[in-house]
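May I ask for a protein sequence together with how it folds?
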Amino acid sequence: MPKSIVVCKVDEMRPGQARCFSVLDRNISIIRIGDVFYAIGDTCSHQNYSLSEGTVIAEDLEIECPKHGSTFDLLTGEPRSLPATKPVPVYAVEVASGEVKVVIE
């Protein structure tokens, strides 16, 4: 059964920001673009680096790994550039009553 876990308040993140949250033993990167929030696994699939420390590319809905430059699609988790070749997990996000929640299956 899916669980909806509160990770932060909407006003705690500014547009264009990414932050890592520990949710049920998983590191998940929450990314805000405008008023929309995305959630993907925080660990680059190429090497063990935090994606939330990378650059958010808002116009392409991507985040770039700070170590080797791989970019990941925020909707699918698929890598869009090398050296990463494996996707990272994506999670549904719910925003209600000023809270950002991640849905864990």
